[in-house]
Amino acid sequence: MNQARRLLFSLVLLFVSVPVVAASLPIPGPPSLGAKSYMLLDFNSGQTLAAKNPDKQIAPASITKLMTCYIVFDELKKGNLSEKDMVTVSKKAWEMHGSQMFLKVGNKVSVNELIQGLITQSGNDAAVALAEYIAGTESTFAQYMNQYAKQLGMTNSHFTDVNGLPAPDHHMSARDIATVLSATIRNFPKLYDQYFHQKEFTYAGIRQYNRNTLLWSDPRVDGGKTGHTDAAGYNLAVSAKADGMRVISVVTGTDSENARKNQAEALISYGFRFYQDGKLFDAGKEISQIHVWKGSETELPVVAHGPVWVAYPRGQKDSLATSAELPSNLTAPVKKGERLGTLAIKYNDKVLKEVPLYAGKSIAKGGYIRQAIDEVRMMF
């Protein structure tokens, strides 16, 4: 294709889709669930596979502790906190009602034990003890929670405490819950593996079992968090993986422990039965090229930030098509990392995912002769 014809196209086709055979069947809709809201997320691609009221603000109850845990893990990763640190239990932590680790005032407890109490036992006292150790007070830690939530793009969350006890201005959404659980797995994989698989924990001679009962009944499930209050109903967020694919299942406002378990599992099974995911481009891989006018070079590689994953109907990878919407007239200088356009990944003309595209390198202005020649060419 010559340069004049390039200017006629703003849509650069990268692949031609293979026609879908008539025998291929559409994916059925997700199961009908009684949850007030739910979300099924493909971990690798970030695509929503099923949802009901995913942005509705709900009372998260103890699922709040996912946000508390995220900050604790980040403090460990940054070196501001050690699992061996000893925390002195305050009166406020001891006074917490609801689910408990059964801490005593003045006890010195390791951060490692407190994290197990936070996740496995869902201890309200453990959450407050960790918050006070990191931030001085629970209210200051709650400010951290809101700042972190904003950084993670959790637009329907606001925290007033570290436990999720009923409060007028304390809320999350199914999408935000999936976001923070996904971020925990992605950003702290070793800590996630260390703590979220645990089925039981004994402290002060009291053995307690993880309320996420899917850890026992479904081998695909490797972690998550429960939550329950009278106002919130029964909530559950879990991660499950099979055949290299991971999904995040969130259900909120169900009417019993058994209902949240069954409904979360129904979403997991739906995702694995009807979808699979795959990597189309490695990180830094050239996805397309674009012509640059008046530059020291004429061709610019176009890339995505990180690898490009997509979730698609099971067995239909060869039916995917990709296209890049790029400027038809790009003039130097161009800076590496500059946003240039969007990659669309389609199946049967339906867009499954859109990915931002960026300049793969910098191209400076060309010399006077190059600029003059291109000025004339651009006229035609």
List keywords for this structure.
Peptidoglycan synthesis regulatory factor (PBP3), Domain 2, Beta-lactamase, alpha+beta, 380 residues, 2 domains, 5-stranded antiparallel β-sheet
Tell me about this structure:
The chain is of the alpha+beta class and 380 residues long. The protein folds into 2 domains: 3-21 and 282-378, Sandwich (Peptidoglycan synthesis regulatory factor (PBP3), Domain 2), CATH 2.60.410.10; 37-275, Beta-lactamase. The protein has 11 helices and 18 strands. The protein has helices at 3-6, 65-78, 91-95, 111-119, 124-135, 138-151, 174-187, 189-195, 214-217, 257-274, 368-378; strands at 11-13, 37-42, 48-52, 86-88, 108-110, 200-203, 206-209, 221-229, 233-242, 245-254, 275-281, 288-293, 299-303, 308-313, 320-325, 330-331, 339-347, 350-359. Strands 1-15-17-18-13-12-16 form a 7-stranded mixed β-sheet. A 5-stranded antiparallel β-sheet has the order 3-2-10-9-8, sandwiched between helices. A two-stranded antiparallel sheet has the order 4-5. A hairpin with a 5-residue loop joins β12 (288-293) and β13 (299-303). α2 crosses α5, α4 crosses α5 (124-135) and α7 (174-187) packs across α8 (189-195). Mean pLDDT is 92; it is low at 1-23.
